[in-house]
């Protein structure tokens, strides 16, 4: 310690001042004094005190018989939490600074307020709410208040020493907010509890029931009830229980039973409970349809209808309707009715029971048939060469029809209950005698019915051959067994329909478009009708030639031939021919590159279009002259004073040439006179590198750019051109 002091004294005065300040900060802070300690919440006590200079925080301590709880706070006031309700605590406080803690302050007593009661609420009736709670420790009384949850209306407040309270005269179906707290012997209130409770809905009233006898449904309506979330309508009978639910003021109960008496009530429900209508409405449904119906014809011409009685049936109506639509009925309180009848009719009998609710559901419909009559207005309709459809008007009393077709050697029959018959497996182009007989189980078959003749449609022809001649005409040949018929041949394709007709065994189709596929069929026709089409024969025409063809020179020995697409063509063959040889290309594209072309030669271009099946169209010829050959031996010579001469060796044949020099200081062009193989450029800058290209010029004036290029360096000598030096060759671009 002495050594430290010696060392400190050896430094300047500033260090001595710092030493004094450090020693001063090590003094503990002053003891705070509690101004007041109080509790507003059952698990905490709030403490207020005067601020201690130099204190950075404070330690609050709450002590009871069983526990000590401490809390560090920054400033006054501070709160100690985690305490027990209705408990007396000794409260002390210490100030804290970097130097340490102060001594505890003189204690002050404070007691936590009572705990909040735990509420259980319910709505025993639409206008009341019952509030219940458990006993609160140290409580001597309770205060409970209630008001609408939306804040409207008055507030009811009651004080009690009990643990339950009922609020009455409330509005039904209304949400209320309930608040309760306990107080101690000194009247200090404790924590409060708040909860919401809705009153139950009022019982539905003014119940109206409307019954639909046709669908056996009941439409139930009532006056809306305030606060009801939904409604349940119940229909009770001795044997069933039906219901429907809704949020509206009406509901439909389905699947009611006939001949049944129901008690109908409505239950209104919300989250508080439910209320049933005070009285139930009685509903009597329609009676059930009478059963055990019997029909007798005794004597002939008189029908007697008898049935059994049904529950809730006040009277009965029997309906008798014949198949002409004429209807008669009998109204009686008994269980029997009598009617007049005629032969040749089918009668449909039904019996209904009636009461105040309406007509009973439709029961079984019975029929009674008298002797049948012969069918009239027989109308045979030809369907095809091997079938005939026969139709006629229904006849009175017929339960079954028998149709026979006779051609002298064979008989074809069909039996059916409807006034129509289809005779199948007939011979084509054959005359049949057709008769229709009516039949019933009571009278049997009526054999006095007349017959009618009908001839079937002609037989289908058979296409034997389809040929093409040199003039693009299509000849179609067929074979047929019909006696007399007119034949029509049809070629159907994507580009239209083409036909020809004949009474013989062949005809010719004209004008079929190229590049098309057709389906060829033949049909025979007679006054009796048309035959089925023959089996189709495919027909393909040659592909169409391209509308245009273009030849383009690509390099001195390569040309590109392109053409438009020919309809129906899948591949193409292009050929170039000259006295020097031939070049050919087979491709599925619409262009082709042909090589080994000799420059300066006349060629003939030929094109063939080929379909997927190999049909070929020769599409004519076109002449083409290949470009002139590129010159050889291109050289540059200096001219006095600032000129350049470009010289070359002309290729075979006569050709015009154009010369171009490309340098960094400009582009220079010259064209020689006809027949010359050089040209001069009089003024050209020296000291530059030039790219030189000599190109033949086509007859159209187009300059060909595929000839090779050469590079020359032109030096300067004094004020005039110096040497021309060859630098190399550049491939044509």
Automatic annotation (TrEMBL):
Keyword line: Signal
Domain of life: Eukaryota
Keyword Signal: yes
Gene3D superfamilies: Immunoglobulins (2.60.40.10)
Residues covered by the Fibronectin type-III domain: 28-115, 116-202, 203-288, 289-373, 374-459
Annotated SMART domains: FN3 (SM00060)
Pfam families: fn3 (PF00041)
Signal peptide range in chain numbering: 1-24
Coiled-coil residue spans: none
Protein name: Fibronectin type III domain containing 7
């Amino acid at each position: 310690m002495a050594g430290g002091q010696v060392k400190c004294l050896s430094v300047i005065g500033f260090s001595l001042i710092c030493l004094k300040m450090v020693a001063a900060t090590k003094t503990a802070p002053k003891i705070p004094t509690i101004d007041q300690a109080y509790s507003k919440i059952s698990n905490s006590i709030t403490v207020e005190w005067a601020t201690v200079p130099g204190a950075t925080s404070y330690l609050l301590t709450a002590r009871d018989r069983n526990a000590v709880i401490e809390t560090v706070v920054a400033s006054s006031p501070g709160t100690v939490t985690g305490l027990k309700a209705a408990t007396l605590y000794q409260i002390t406080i210490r100030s804290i600074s970097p130097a340490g803690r102060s001594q505890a302050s003189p204690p002050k007593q404070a007691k936590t307020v009572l705990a909040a009661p735990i509420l259980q609420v319910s709505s025993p009736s639409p206008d009341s709410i019952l509030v219940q709670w458990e006993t609160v420790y140290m409580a001597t009384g309770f205060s409970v208040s209630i008001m609408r949850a939306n804040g409207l209306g008055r507030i009811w407040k009651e004080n009690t020493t009990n643990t339950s309270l009922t609020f009455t005269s409330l509005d039904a179906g209304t949400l209320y907010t309930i608040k309760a707290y306990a107080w101690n012997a000194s009247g200090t209130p404790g924590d409060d509890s708040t909860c919401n409770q809705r009153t139950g809905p009022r019982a539905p009233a003014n119940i109206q029931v409307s019954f639909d006898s046709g669908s056996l449904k009941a439409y139930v309506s009532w006056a809306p009830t305030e606060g009801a979330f939904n409604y349940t309508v119940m229909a009770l009978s001795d044997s069933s229980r039906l219901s429907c639910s809704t949020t509206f003021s009406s509901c439909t109960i389905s699947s009611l039973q006939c001949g049944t008496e129901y008690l109908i009530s409505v239950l209104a429900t919300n989250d508080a409970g439910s209320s049933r209508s005070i009285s139930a409405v009685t509903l009597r449904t329609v009676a059930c349809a009478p059963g055990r119906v019997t029909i007798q014809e005794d004597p002939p011409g008189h029908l007697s209808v008898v049935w059994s009685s049904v529950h809730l049936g006040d009277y009965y109506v029997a309906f008798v309707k014949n198949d002409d639509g004429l209807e008669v009925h009998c109204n009686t309180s008994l269980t029997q009715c009598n009617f007049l009848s005629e032969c040749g009719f089918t009668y449909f009998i039904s019996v209904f029971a009636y009461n105040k609710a309406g007509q009973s559901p439709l029961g079984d419909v019975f029929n009674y048939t008298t002797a049948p009559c012969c069918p009239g207005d027989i109308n045979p309709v030809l369907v095809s060469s091997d079938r005939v459809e026969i139709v006629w008007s229904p006849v009175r009393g017929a339960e079954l029809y028998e149709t026979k077709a006779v051609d002298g050697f064979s008989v074809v029959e069909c039996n059916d209950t409807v006034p129509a018959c289809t005779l199948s497996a007939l011979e084509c182009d054959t005359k049949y005698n057709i008769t229709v007989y009516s039949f019933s189980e009571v009278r049997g078959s009526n054999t006095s019915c007349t017959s009618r003749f009908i001839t079937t449609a002609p037989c289908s022809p058979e296409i034997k051959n389809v040929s093409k001649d040199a003039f693009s005409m299509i000849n179609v040949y067929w074979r047929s067994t019909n006696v007399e018929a007119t034949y029509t041949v049809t070629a159907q394709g994507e580009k239209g329909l083409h036909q020809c007709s004949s009474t013989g065994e062949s005809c010719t189709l004209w004008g079929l478009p190229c590049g098309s596929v057709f389906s060829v069929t033949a049909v025979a026709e007679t006054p009796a009708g048309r035959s089925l089409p023959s089996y189709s024969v495919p027909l393909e025409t040659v592909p169409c030639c391209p509308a245009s063809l273009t030849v383009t020179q690509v390099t001195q020995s390569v040309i590109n031939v392109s053409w438009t697409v020919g309809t129906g063509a899948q591949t193409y063959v292009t050929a170039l021919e000259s006295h020097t040889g031939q070049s050919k290309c087979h491709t599925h594209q619409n262009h082709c590159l042909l090589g080994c072309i000799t420059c300066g030669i006349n060629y003939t271009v030929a094109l063939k279009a080929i379909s997927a099946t190999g049909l070929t169209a020769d599409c004519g010829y076109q002449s083409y002259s290949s470009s002139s050959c590129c010159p050889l031996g291109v050289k540059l010579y200096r001219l006095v004073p600032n000129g350049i001469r470009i010289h070359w060796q002309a290729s075979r044949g006569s050709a015009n040439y154009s010369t171009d020099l490309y340098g960094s200081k400009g582009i220079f062009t010259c064209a020689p006179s006809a027949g010359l193989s050089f040209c001069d450029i009089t003024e050209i800058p020296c000291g530059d590198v030039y790219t030189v290209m000599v190109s033949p010029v086509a007859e159209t004036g187009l300059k060909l750019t595929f000839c090779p290029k050469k590079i020359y360096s032109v030096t300067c000598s004094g004020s005039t051109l110096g040497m021309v030096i060859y630098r190399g060759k550049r491939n044509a671009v």
